[in-house]
Amino acid sequence: MWDWAFAFEILPILAHAAIISIEATLVGFVLAAGLGLVLALARIAFPWTAWPISVLVELIRSTPLLIQIFFLYFVFPSFGITLDAFTAGVLALGIHYAAYCSEVYRAGFDNIHRGQWEASIALNLSAWTTFRDIIIPQAIPPIVPALGNYLVALFKETPLLSAIAVLELMQTAKIIGSETFRYTEPITLVGLFFLAMSLVSASLIRAAERYLNRRPAR
Amino acid sequence: MGIRTLIVMLVASVVIIAILATQETYRIFVPGLLEGALLTAKITVLGALLAVAMGVLAALGKLYGPAPVRWLANIYIEIFRGTSALVQLFWLFFVLPQFGINLEAFTVAVLALGLNIGAYGAECARGAITSVARGQWEAATALNMTRFQMLRRIILPQAFIAMIPPWGNLFIELLKSTALVSLITLSDLAFKAQQMNQTTMKTIPIFTLVLLIYLAMSLVITIAMRYLEQRASRGLARGRTV
Known about the structure:
The structure holds 2 protein chains of 2 kinds.
Chain A: H1 4-45, H2 50-61, H3 65-78, H4 85-110, H5 114-122, H6 127-157, H7 169-180, H8 184-213
Chain B: H1 3-21, H2 24-27, H3 30-64, H4 67-82, H5 85-95, H6 105-130, H7 134-142, H8 147-177, H9 189-200, H10 203-232, H11 236-240
Helix pairs in contact in B: 1-10, 3-4, 3-6, 3-8, 3-9, 3-10, 4-6, 5-6, 6-8, 7-8, 8-10, 9-10
C-alpha cells in the first residue's frame, strides 16, 4: 500500500514544487494585503466609493475562487494581453483575498476612536501624517492575527492553481500520479505538507497575537 | 449589509441573468449552465447536511466525549482544517481506490466537502455550545435532568440559535468550494463553464453568467440564514436578559 522507497524518491520533486506554492502564497498575500488596504482607505478617503466597493467585495467574496482564476486566465488574452498561468493565478488569489483583507482593515479602522481623528485635526497634522503616525500604528497591530489567518487560508487555496496547470505542489503530485499510477504517496505527502505548515503557522499566529496584545501602559 | 440590500441585490442579479438570457450571445449558454447549477445546488445541500451533522457531533465529542472520542474529534478537526479542500477531494478520489474503496465522483464530492466544512463548523458549534450561560446547566441540574436531557432540551436548542450566523458563512464557503468538484469530472456549474469556454472561447459572456449565478445562489443562502436567525431568536431576549 505505502511504499517508503517511492515516497523518498518523489520527496525532492515535491519539495521543489513546494517552493512554487510558497512563492505563490507570498506574492498573492502581498497583493491581497496591499490591495485590501487601498480598498479600505478609498472607502474612508472618498465616501462615495463606499457603495460600489462594498458591492465589489460582496461579488468577489460570494463567487468561487476557481471561477475567478479561470476568468482571469482566459479573459486577458481576449484583450490582447497574455499572462502566464502563474501570474494569472497569483493575481486571482491576490484579488480574491484583497476583498477579505479590506474588511479586516475596515474593522481595524472602525476601532479607532473618533477623538484620535479630531485630535489630529486640532494638531494641524496633514491627512498623510495622521494616517502614518496616528491611525496605522493603532489600527494594524490588533488585526495582524486576522490577516495571518487569511495568509494561511490563501496558502491552502494554492492547490487551485493546478487547475490552470501551474506546476505547484498539487499539480506536481498529480503528474507523478499519472506517470507512475501511484497516487497514494504523492497526494498523502502533499496533504501532510499542508497539515504541517498549517499547524506551524497557527502556533505562530497565536504567538503574534500574544506579543501584540502586550499593550504599552497608558 | 442589511437584509433589504441583499434582497435588492438578489433581485437585480436574477433580472440581469434573465435579460442576458434573451441576448443572442448569451442565450446558447443558459440551459447548460442552469443544468450545471442544479448539480452545484445538490452538492451544496447534501454537503451542508453532512457538514452540520459532523460539526455538531465533533463539537459534542470534543467537549463531552471520553478521552478516545475527544482525540478522534480533535484529529478530525485538525486534519480537515489543516489541509486544503482540493487535497482532500483528490485524496478521496485518487487514493481511496488504491485501497480498494471505489466511490462515485458525486459521493466523493459530497463526502469531501461536507467533512471539510464540518471541521470548520465543529469549532463554531463548540463556541456556540460553550456560550450558553452556566445558569442553564445549573437550573437543568436542579430540575434533576439527566446529562442527555440537559443537552437535548436545554443547551442545544439555545446553542443552535448562536450557530446560525457562522454556519451561514460556512454554507457560502461550501457553495464556493463546490467549484472544485469540476476537477474530479463532475459536470457542475464550474465544469460547464470551463467546457463551454474551451469549445467556444467566448470567455466574457460565459463567465459573466456563471459569476452572476453563483452570486444569486450565495445571496439565497445569506438571505435564508438571516431570515432563519430572525425567526429563531424571536422571544429569546426574555430569557437572556435575566
